[in-house]
Amino acid sequence: MSILKEKMTWLGTAIVLVVLIVFGFAMMGSVLGSEPKELPVALVVLDQPMELPTGGTLEAGKMIQATLSSNSSLPFAWHIVGSEEEARKGLDNRDYYGALVLPAGLSSSLYSLVTSSPIHPHVKIISNEGMSTQALAVVTQVLEQALRRINTELSLQLLEQFGQPMEQVPVETVKALVMPVNIQEEVIHSPGMNNASGNAPALLTQIMWIGSLVTGISLFLASKKEVGAASSRWSVIAVQTITGLTIISFASGFTIWMAMSWYGMEMADAGGTWLFLWLAGSAFFLLQSSLLNWIGFRAMPLLVLLMFFSIPLLNMAPEFLPQITRDWIYSWTPLRFAAGGLREVMYFGGLDAAASNVLILWSIAVGFLVLLLASGFKAGRSTATVSNP
């Protein structure tokens, strides 16, 4: 059992524990136990109060609004808007994960249920699927549950306010009063066919990160060989940069073609998706190559950790994440801007919808392009020192 006396055995065990802790936090700690908090949802109240023949006022829209707003268990941040058109505009602009529309005439329709001319009212739930399928499930499920409870309350209130004993109420009216309000559901900005349930932007981002990393490592090794052959370091770095961006252009186009032709991924704007994916891949390549050229393969642990810390966050709505994860990882990781921009391009109308993420990725690309080219001068000064002792 001499192996147990070797320092390397215990050092290896300690390293394994450190690796498990770091990658455990990266893959699980940053997302496990997450729950939705303050999901922005639009509420449209078009209903007008109705004066009852027996006295009093029926204000179903206001009652529903008060019930929903006062329910602290709902994971929503309500935004009151004046019209359905305004709510839809906010959904298109990715301001809301969903909207609840209480129509005009809701109160009068509810009253009609106990008359000879009943009109069954409808409320509408609009779910913004393109923003997050995870948030879509929560918005739809929680709103349906809340409206079912409200339906029960409305049923009791209507019977009390109308003052009609149960035996005098027709059977059809009783059936209508059991579920006074019908729920209509509408899904907008649907990802389409074979989009991994709306997670295709995250998948494309991961593929592009790995592809650009392989490109960066290959060209970094090739450039070291060229510099060893006494070539100009700055010119080698310049060629490395141009070659890498050319490869990324081809790789991004091939990835889009592969996703569509091999796997049947549906894309409304394949050209815009390719352009944005090229921009994201270029930003990744320049970031990775800059670190490799400045600090060598010591940059690899940083790049690997960045990838593993970022990947679990790409498919999650930020409102689901713990605050520490949002502040310390989600707020700055470049993979998040790439995945978010792809989501906007693919599901919300093309490159125009992704303007903010395009600007951020351009800034990353330009900043690391300057840093990458500057590494040529740094290496050149180092060579001059060695050759002239």
Automatic annotation (TrEMBL):
Membrane topology: Multi-pass membrane protein
Cellular compartments per GO CC: membrane
Domain ABC-2 type transporter transmembrane per the UniProt entry, residue ranges: 13-373
GO MF entries: ABC-type transporter activity
Taxonomic superkingdom: Bacteria
Major subcellular location class: membrane
InterPro entries given in the database record: ABC2_TM (IPR013525), T7SS_ABC-Transporter (IPR051328)
Coiled-coil region(s): none
Keyword terms, alphabetized: Membrane, Transmembrane, Transmembrane helix
Transmembrane segments: 203-222, 234-263, 275-295, 302-321, 354-374
Cell compartment(s), UniProt: Membrane
PANTHER family, A to Z: PHAGE INFECTION PROTEIN (PTHR43077:SF5), TRANSPORT PERMEASE YVFS-RELATED (PTHR43077)
Protein name: ABC-2 type transporter transmembrane domain-containing protein
Protein source organism: Paenibacillus yonginensis
